[in-house]
Amino acid sequence: MKKPAAKGGRKHLHDDDHDVWSHTAQSIEPLKKAKGRHHPAAERAAEMTPPAAAKHAAEPAKSKPDKAASGKGGAATSAKPKAVPAPPPIATFDRKKVRKIRSGQVEIEARIDLHGMRQDEAHSALVRFLLRCQSKEQRWVLVITGKGKLTDSDPHAPFDLTRPRERGVLKRNVPRWLDEPELRHLVVSYTTAAIQHGGEGALYIHLRKRG
Fold first, then answer.
1. N or C terminus: fewer CB in 10 A for the chain?
2. Is 33 inside any structural domain?
3. Mean pLDDT of the 11-29 span
4. Strand 187-192 relative to strand 140-144: parallel, antiparallel, unpaired?
């Protein structure tokens, strides 16, 4: 404890003042530092918490951007499926090729006879035939459909314009099948065959090259 200065700025204390100061200095005890308060449960929790977990809890969680939902500029983007190009339309059969096929200058490389088949059987057989021919790189083929016949089976019945006439289911349906997308990507063109190859009951078919 520091000794107080004398009154009036004097350096030495009066005898009475000196006695009082000495008695006071002997009776004063130094202050003890206050102990910090603690809770036993808090100490146990701190001891059980791993350092990595305590560090992770102290740091704020960072949100990751959703890449799937946001594209350039934050706008949502979605991949558009590519459109499959439609097969080209059936072309007009080359007349020069017709003459060469009729004369034998261009050989018919394969043929199929659908006559007498049911529609579902004929359609499946036609698809398999054309695919097989294209895989063999055959370009000129013949499909026999049959001409059809009268619905009245009596050959001696009198001629009647009102009588329904069946011109052949396959004769009508095969050209329609060839125009459909399933087969149109295989066929360049088709036309009625020459008489020696079946006439109206058959078709010359020009196949596309295998892509």
1. C
2. no
3. 61
4. unpaired
What pTM, to 2 d.p., does this model score? 0.55
Euclidean distance between CA atoms 163 and 153, whole angstroms = 12
> Could you tell me the strand order of the sheet in which 140-144 lies?
110-113, 140-144, 202-207, 187-192
Rounded to whole angstroms, how far apart are CA atoms 94 and 20?
139
**Does 185 fall in a domain?**
yes
Integer Cα distance of 134 and 184 in angstroms: 13
Return the residue matching tokens 């095969």. Answer: 174
- Residue 65 in any domain: the answer is no
SS3 42: helix
pLDDT band, very low/low/confident/very high, at 163 (cuts 50, 70, 90): very low
Using a pLDDT cut of 70, give the percent of the chain over it. Answer: 52
Helices first, then strands: H and E counts in the chain: 7, 4
At a CB cut-off of 8 Å and minimum separation 6, what does 32 contact? none
Residue 18 lies in a domain: no
Chain centroid to CA 82: 9
Rounded (10°) CA dihedral 127, 128, 134, 135: 150
Q: Could you give the number of structural domains in the chain?
A: 1
What is the domain range of residue 106? 95-150+164-198
